[in-house]
Design brief:
The longest helix is centred in the middle third of the chain and has 41 residues. The strands form two sheets. Strands 2-3-1-6 form a four-stranded antiparallel sheet, with helices on both faces. Strands 4-5 form a two-stranded antiparallel ribbon. It starts with a helix and ends in a 5-residue tail after the last helix. A hairpin with a 4-residue loop joins strand 4 and strand 5. It is built from nine helices and six strands; from the N terminus they run αααααβααββαβββα. With 281 residues, it is of the alpha+beta class. It is elongated, with a radius of gyration of 34 Å. 20% of the residues are buried.
Length: 281
């Protein structure tokens, strides 16, 4: 993040604090409580400050000009028709209100700029993240980057490649029953169990919060063996939830697509594996 922008925010915040400190001293020293008119103008000043914070400096200055015009006209009317002399405090309000508008607008503007840079930085970091923070599995950005390497290995060395998709049955319903926190624990347990069942050369990814994807260096028959082993392990998992006083039975669907050279795009491979889920009932 740009450090200069943070320093600008700090500077204008300190300036705003110092300004209101000076304003408080002026109110105390000049005995503003002697006139109810001063309370009204102080209230208007605070309203202008609020408007200036939520709107840009142009709108706040226009509002200031309108207020100064109305107050000046009112004071001139009192002077001409009522014979009331113009008080020096009149000129003081003419100065304080626009100063309040400018400083508050600058604080707001620089805070917004800092927030925009923070959002941009978070978006850039999101693009670079290749690991799911919950399970530690690679995410789909990583899959998109790595699958071309495996397809190239298949074409060059004739190494069989199988895409295996593991999807929770009734994942949304399960999440609603046990809650997000316990569901996250299920994801972590299943991810670890599935990863332990694979070989070092295989790759594991998480597509979303109920679907895992694996790249297996094996043909259809070898992938079937892995599928059978995974289902057996999931069936024997102990996921007793003390809240419900019973064991939660997790069911999964597994789809296998063995690469045959016809599909090359990551999304097409995922769709082919997802289609195979329909046959696992």
């Amino acid at each position: 993040m740009d450090d200069s922008q943070r320093k600008k925010v700090d500077f204008y915040m300190n300036l705003l604090i110092a300004y209101f400190l000076i304003l408080t001293m002026i109110i105390s020293l000049l005995d503003f409580k002697s006139s109810f008119e001063n309370y009204i103008m102080l209230t208007i000043l605070m309203i202008v400050g609020i408007i200036s914070y939520y709107f840009n400096i142009t709108i706040s200055l226009v509002a200031t000009l309108i207020i100064d015009f109305i107050y000046g006209t009112y004071s001139l009317y009192q002077n001409i028709f009522l014979g009331k002399s113009l008080d020096y405090k009149l000129y003081l309000w003419f100065i304080l209100i626009p100063i309040t508008a400018i400083i508050t607008s600058l604080v707001s503007k620089n805070i917004l700029l800092l927030q925009e840079k923070l959002k941009k930085l978070e978006a850039e970091n999101e693009e670079l993240i290749m690991i799911n923070p919950l399970t530690g599995d690679r995410n789909m950005k990583s899959f998109n980057n790595e699958i071309p390497i495996y397809l190239s290995m298949n074409k060059r060395y004739n190494i069989p490649i199988t895409i295996m998709m593991v999807k929770f049955k009734y994942g949304d319903r399960l999440k609603n029953i046990v809650g997000q926190d316990y569901y996250n624990n299920i994801l972590i347990i299943v991810s670890q169990l599935l990863s332990d069942s694979l070989r070092v050369e295989d790759r594991n990814y998480i597509l979303n919060d109920d679907t895992f994807v694996y790249i297996l260096l094996s043909d259809k028959e070898g992938a079937k063996v892995v599928e059978k082993r995974l289902k057996e392990k999931i069936k024997n998992m102990d996921m007793k939830n003390n809240k419900f006083k019973k064991n939660i039975h997790l069911e999964v669907q597994i789809g296998l697509y063995t690469y045959n050279g016809k599909l090359d795009k990551p999304l097409e491979l995922l769709k082919a594996a997802e289609k195979e889920l329909e046959y696992d009932v």
